[in-house]
Specification:
With 217 residues, the chain is of the alpha/beta class. The protein contains 11 helices and 8 strands. An 8-stranded parallel β-barrel has the order 1-2-3-4-5-6-7-8, surrounded by 7 helices. The radius of gyration is 19 Å and the shape is globular. It binds erythose-4-phosphate. The site of erythose-4-phosphate has 11 residues, from helix 7.
């Protein structure tokens, strides 16, 4: 399973990259705003800065919601760097744009997926990735993992090459469960990724090994 980090924070991206386990980055307009990145040129430069840190795909989201606008913005984003994947919302105009991008060899990530039907449409249009938001489904008492499972079955039934990018990950168990289901990629905060490191028996065991080693010094 590929590990993407879901942030526009350069320090966190560097930290995950330094661990040697990072495969890519996802961003969205809220995450860019959180870092105070405003204005077209600054946003573009920030995407380039992210691409220069990580070895892998970087999702950059369009703001336009009309077909022509999505195409114009998406082409400009894709031209910024070869690692850029154009993130397009799951709306009718978005699906049409994904079809166009796919015919031009521009890679896409269809975002805001909340149902298997939406995932199927995006895959048929040729999306490179689809992003089901499992945490946000859990937030409204709906089983987000069940959606990942449904999409896995459908994509396997028809051998769709579109990758399932499990998004809106909130904690380490989401990552483990997505790996068991067979999500191709997960994207989440640095805290969910580093939480995978922790086990109290590891800490106790290491402390004992070091103490025993010290006795022999
Ligand atoms: C996906 O690409 C989104 O940026 C993200 O995972 C949304 O997560 P949230 O529900 O924690 O905002």
């Amino acid at each position: 399973m590929k590990f993407f980090i879901d942030t526009a924070n350069l320090d966190q991206i560097k930290e995950a990259q330094d661990m040697g386990i990072l495969d890519g980055v996802t961003t969205n307009p809220s995450l860019m705003a959180k870092e105070g990145i405003k204005g077209e040129e600054k946003v573009k430069q920030h995407y380039i800065d992210i691409c220069n840190i990580v070895d892998g795909d970087v999702s950059a989201e369009v703001i336009a919601t009309d077909y022509e606008g999505i195409i114009k913005e998406g082409e400009a984003l894709a031209a910024l760097h070869e690692q850029i994947v154009v993130k397009v919302p799951m709306i009718k105009e978005g699906v049409k744009a994904i079809k166009y991008f796919s015919s031009k060899g521009i890679r896409t990530n269809c975002t805001l997926i909340f149902s298997a039907g939406q995932a199927l449409l995006a895959a048929k249009a040729g999306a490179t990735y689809i992003s089901p938001f499992l945490g946000r489904l859990d937030d409204i008492s709906t089983d987000g993992l069940n959606l990942i499972d449904e999409i896995r079955t459908i994509f396997d039934n028809y051998l769709f090459e579109t990758e399932i990018l499990a998004a809106s990950i909130r904690h380490p168990m989401h990552i483990i469960e997505c790996a068991k289901i067979g999500a191709d990629v997960m994207t989440g905060p640095l805290s969910a990724i580093t939480a995978l490191l922790n086990h109290p028996l590891t800490d106790i065991g290491l402390e004992k090994f070091l103490a025993d080693h010290a006795k022999n010094e």
